[in-house]
Amino acid sequence: xxxxxxxxxxxxxxxxxxxxxxxxxxxxxxxxxxxxxxxxxxxxxxxxxxxxxxxxxxxxxxxxxxxxxxxxxxxxxxxxxxxxxxxxxxxxxxxxxxxxxxxxxxxxxxxxxxxxxxxxxxxxxxxxxxxxxxxxxxxxxxxxxxxxxxxxxxxxxxxxxxxxxxxxxxxxxxxxxxxxxxxxxxxxxxx
Length: 191
Known about the structure:
Elements: H1 19-41, H2 51-57, H3 60-77, H4 89-99, H5 102-115, E1 120-126, E2 132-138, E3 149-155, H6 158-165, H7 169-177, H8 182-187
Antiparallel strand pairs: 1-2, 1-3
Enzyme class: oxidoreductase
GO molecular function: metal ion binding; superoxide dismutase activity
Catalytic activity: 2 superoxide + 2 H(+) = H2O2 + O2
């Protein structure tokens, strides 16, 4: 398995996320997860399996490394230079139906993210019944192992925001929303 490239240069998310912070998360943390996965799957039935399958079917240390690698890979697509704003089209319609408006979605997301003690992730997901929801997962856990479709992911591990925002998760979330890639989130909606 290879470390996937960023969909933009490491400095492209500035001023919201610094080049140094993106490089640390991608080049150090994500690379370490990929290396751990590769070490654990070498010579096993998982050796040629796609990352998503490993996440869905593995357990223990392999799951932790694979899920974190997948979460980080997904996260980079959830962000983009000159991102932010509000969703449009079908996604905007679902946000309105499920949350009232984008501001209410952001509040629900931030409240959930700020309420998570310790490391993990905040997600916007699409449930099988067509409703949107905000969920948080601890450590490397991911909605990929559920029946829900992840649309957006926000990394809540301290290393995601310590360099730029020290321990101020609220300031980090404010900056994160300014880089959100709503187009990518909308592309995750089925048909």
